[in-house]
Every structure is written in C-alpha cells, then in structure tokens.
Amino acid sequence: MTAVRSKIVQAGALDVESARADFPILKLKVNGKPLVFLDNAASSQMPQPVIDRLVKYQSSEHANIHRAVHYLSEKATSEYEAARRKIQAFINAREEREVIFTSGTTDGINLVAHGYGRKFIGDGDEIILTTLEHHSNIVPWQMLAEEKNARIRVVPINDRGELDLNAYRGSFSARTKLVGATHVSNALGTINPIREMIEIAHAHGVPVLVDGAQAAPHMKVDVQDLDCDFYAFSGHKLCGPTGIGILYGKAELLERMQPFKGGGDMILSVTFEKTTYNTIPHKFEAGTPPIAAAIGLGAAVDYLEGLGLDVISAHETDLLDYATQQVNRLGGLRIIGTAERKAAVLSFVVEGVHPHDVGTLLNEEGVAIRTGHHCAQPVMQRFKVPATCRASFAFYNTLAEVDALVAAIRKVQKVFA
Ligand SMILES: Cc1ncc(COP(=O)(O)O)c(C=O)c1O
Fold first, then answer.
1. Who lines ligand 1 at CB under 6 A?
2. Ligand 1, atom 15: nearest CA belongs to which residue?
3. Average pLDDT of the chain?
C-alpha cells in the first residue's frame, strides 16, 4: 500500500484536504482570493510527487534513450519503458507494445488517421463520428475524407446531449470503415455508452477509435473490457506533464498500419534503396520522444492509482451533483448538457450575459472556469449557443469551491441585473 493510499479515510472516501496538500499551485491567490480551479477539463494540475519525479529525472537520469550503452542512456531507457508498463497496467492493455507514446490525444488521433486511415480508407468509404466530438476527432477525418474522397456520417444527439443510439445503429453501411467516438464529451460531460457502441461496430466488422481525453482522468478505463481498437488520451489532463499522451492500439492493427512519422528510432535498417521499419510500438515513435514527460506521466498514473479511480470518480460525482443542484437553484441560467450519465463537467449559459463576461467576472473572484466553444463547435451549433461557461471538476475540488462558484455567478447576475 503506497503512502498516498493512506490518505484515503476508512470509509473509502477521498480525503480531499490531504490530496489538495499535494498540489502546490492550489495554494495560489488570484486577485486576492483563494484560487478555485475549475478548468480541469482543459488541463489538470500536477501533484508534488510528479513534480519531484521530473526533477529527479532531469537532475540524475537524463540522456537520450535506446541509442547508447552508457549508464545514463540505459537508465533513461529503462525508466521510459517502465513508464510504458505502468500505463499498460493503468488501462489494462494486453501487451506493452500496444502502448504508444504520443504528444497528446490530438497526436494519437492523427496517428490513426494517417497510419490506419490513409492505408485502409478509400474512395467512397465512410467514417462514423458523433456530434459530441472535439475538433481533434473531426478535423483529421475531414482532411482524410477530402484526400480520399471518403464520406463522414455524423450521429446526432438529443436535447439532453445524449447520443441517439438508434441513429448510430442506422449509420452503418457496407462502406463503413471506422468509428471515431468520444468516451466523454468535453463540452457537456456526457458519458457515451461506448462499450455498446463498440459492440455494434464490431458486429459490422468496423474498428473503433475512442477519444478518451476526458474519460481516462475520471474513471477506470479497461481497454480489454471495452474491446476498443484504439484509445487516445493526454497526460496533461491526468495530473501529468504537457507534451505527452498515449495511443493504445490492438497489436494486430498497429502491425498492419503504416508509420505516421519517419525518422530515427522507428527503423530497423535504412539504405537509400529501402527502409525496414522497427517493431511496434517503436515504429510509431520517430525521433527523440518527450522522455521526461513520459516518465512524469508514469508518476501521475502511480499517483492516481494510489488514490483509486473509483474513489476519484465517486468524489467527482458528488461535486457534479451538488454543483448541478446549486446552480439550478440560482435560476436565470440554463445548463447545457443534462445527460443521465455525466462526468464532472457543468456547462451553462447565464441569461443575458455573454459567457466571456461571466468568465472575466468569475476570475475577479479567483474562480477559474473556461468560456468559449471548447473546441466543440458542432455541439454549440446543436444547442444554438455561440459559447458556454464550463466548470470542470477534479478530485481535488471541494464542495466549498462549488459554493464559491455559485456565489460568484450570483454576483455576475447582480452586476447584469
Ligand atoms: C474530448 C477531447 N478530445 C481531444 C482533446 C485534445 O487534447 P490535446 O489538446 O491534449 O491533444 C481534448 C482537449 O480538450 C478533449 O477534451
């Protein structure tokens, strides 16, 4: 049992104050007020053990990996590969070679679009996406569709922000080559019935790429249980560093795919006549990777597992339920996204006040939320709003911070009354 585990109180609930003490940034004051950080869906904060791991790597372990026999290179290589194994366990991948280090979710999706899409999707083929997608799971497919003369079919959502499963079922045709779907919507918090969606796609022989950017930090993800073909997520949303992410892919698919980027480390041999590629996962990790960030992500995963994803999930559900109830009580605003199954995202619009004004006034109270289209413009179009205010919670947020959010919104309403 790790030291972090001991922070959990007997009842199995999270000792939030003790967890908060691990995050130096949460002690900040903004505009003279204690920081209330509710922009976790954009990027979460980093606990001291992860910061310490980065410092240790930079001060005593750094060298380039995979390329030398000297002590530091071997040390850095073994720590980098150990981080891969930690992430393999974190998502329950069958094999460590199914875990590819990327620079983030966007990079992972682009890898699939180039490595799988450009090879296996052609003229007249179809790709199924959902209205809930982040731009990073739309634009790479549009670029591919344009290049290959393929077609994108979009599955609609209902007024609560839930996917229309019947429409999804009806979207398949003999030409369907791939489904790209988010596990959790970053704009609304909707949790998609992803396991069922994968089952339906597989019944048609179609592989599924899951955008897990908003799921991996908040719930236990088991890629074998989901039976997804690809699963992408970002380190910086899960208490790790920026510049690192993961693409999980089933080995048999990764092996059939073409590399995305060419360069050092992704080859076995190179002549001017012919290059043979390295085995997976190295085939997809050209050049010097973000070694420190990968090791930092390994430490972040250790930290989250120390707390327990089930415990994190339960606390965040409490935060969301309380915030939803309190915000609804205020009146004069509309929550956008009221799905039955939601992760810790509360999107709303305040009547008569532009979201950017709400965000600016909340900042004066030390409350950090995000306002805008959240890189999900089709979701905004569906709800006929240009933007929303989005409070997104992490396990280190408290019910008192929800109260601070609600009090700050009340102030905004008074200013604009
Ligand atoms: C659902 C979803 N997908 C993809 C991304 C892109 O992640 P990144 O910018 O780390 O590549 C985000 C980031 O907000 C997201 O929320």
1. 41-42, 104-106, 134, 136, 182, 186, 211, 213-214, 234
2. 213
3. 96
Per the CB < 8 A criterion, the answer to whether 241 and 88 are in contact is no
User: How many A from CA of 108 to the centre of ligand 1?
Assistant: 10
Is 375 labeled as catalytic in the residue annotation? yes
pLDDT tens column, 8-50: 443 568 999 999 999 999 999 999 999 999 999 999 999 999 9
Q: Please count the helices (runs of H) and the strands (runs of E) in the chain.
A: 15, 17
Ligand 1 atom 12, closest CA: 213
Atom of ligand 1 nearest to the CA of 133: 1
246 and 254 Cβ atoms separated by less than 8 Å: no
What tens digit of pLDDT does each residue of 322-362 get?
999 999 999 999 999 999 999 999 999 999 999 999 999 99
User: pTM for this structure?
Assistant: 0.96
Max Cα distance, the chain (Å): 73
Contacts of 198 (CB under 8 A, 6+ apart): 179, 208, 210, 226, 227, 228
Ligand 1 centre and the CA of 106: distance in Å? Answer: 6
DSSP 94: S
- pLDDT for the residue numbered 67: 79
Answer yes or no: are the C-beta atoms of 188 and 336 closer than 8 Å: yes
295: exposed, middle or buried (C-beta count within 10 Å: 0-12, 13-18, 19+)? buried
- CA–centroid distance, 136 to ligand 1, in Å, is 7
At residue 17, the pLDDT reads 96
Q: Which atom of ligand 1 is nearest to the CA of 107?
A: 11
Contact 333, 410 (CB under 8 A): no
Write the single-letter amino acid at 274: K
Cα–ligand 1 centroid distance for 133 (angstroms): 10
